[in-house]
Amino acid sequence: MSSPLRLAVLASGGGSNLQALLDAAPGAPFEVALCVSNRADAGALGRARGAGCATAVLDADALASDAATTATLLDAFARHDVNFVALAGYMRKIPPDVVRTFKGRMLNIHPALLPAFGGKGLYGHRVHEAVLAYGVRWTGATVHLVDEEYDTGPIVLQEPVPVHADDTPETLAARVLAVEHRLYPEAVRLFARGRVTIDGRRVVIQS
Ligand code: GRF
Predict the structure, then answer these.
(1) Residue 8 and residue 55 in contact, taking contact as beta carbons nearer than 8 Å
(2) pLDDT mean over 184-189
């Protein structure tokens, strides 16, 4: 992989994880080369522009079909020399051809300890609502490689977060997000330093 690693971050929402990656990049072996969103009003795009990072918005035509999304994404990645992708609150499924092109080079962050509380329909606050409804004492954050399903790719890093008796989805989300902001840049750093090998479902990290 070329050095430094050139990252595209895909985000649909506020972009606090994008911000954590932007903040970690100076001095790190990666840079955020591009931020892509499916929503023109995503807070993530403003954060990217504020950091002088290139942005792209997928318009309705690009989102009309998998083939069009694939062509638009791969073209944007090529124009910005992107060699690694991080999904950060991106609410659209990534077309299979893009997943295959970036196999082993595309990460997602999920606000729970996968494989619990993941899968289709479990995103954003729904995850924390499900965690509280189930009554687990621990939740957490997971960084995993992206495969063609929802939240099922090999796990790179996880960190537990306690659930408090008086938590609401909002208080729990905030506690988990604080961990996400540390974990995601750490995971990208490990890939950028060539410390990660993938052995089937198992991700091996050299210390
Ligand atoms: C995070 O909780 C992330 O784990 C999930 O979506 C949320 C995005 O938050 N995939 P933000 O836009 O990065 O603030």
Answers:
(1) no
(2) 98
pTM of the model: 0.97
Please determine, for residue 2, whether its predicted confidence score (pLDDT) is greater than 90. no
Task: DSSP for 31-58, please give it.
Answer: EEEEEEES-TT-HHHHHHHHTT-EEEE-
Centre of ligand 1 from the C-alpha of residue 151, in Å? 13
CA distances from 123 to 110, 126, 150, 191 (A): 8, 6, 10, 25
Given a cut of 50, is residue 71 above it in pLDDT? Answer: yes
> What is the Å distance from ligand 1's center to 3 Cα?
27
Instruction: Assess contact for 121 and 72: CB atoms under 8 A.
Output: no
Which atom of ligand 1 is nearest to 19's Cα? 13
- Protein residue with least CA distance to atom 7, ligand 1: 89
Omega of the bond prior to 115 within 30 degrees of 0, cis?
A: yes
**What's 177-188 look like in SS3?**
HHHHHHHHHHHH
Residue 39 clears pLDDT 60, i.e. is over it:
yes
User: For residues 108 and 117, is the Cβ–Cβ distance under 8 A?
Assistant: no
CA dist 123 and 121 (Å) reads 6
Distance CA 93, CA 175 (A): 26
Which residue, by CA, sits nearest to atom 8 of ligand 1?
89
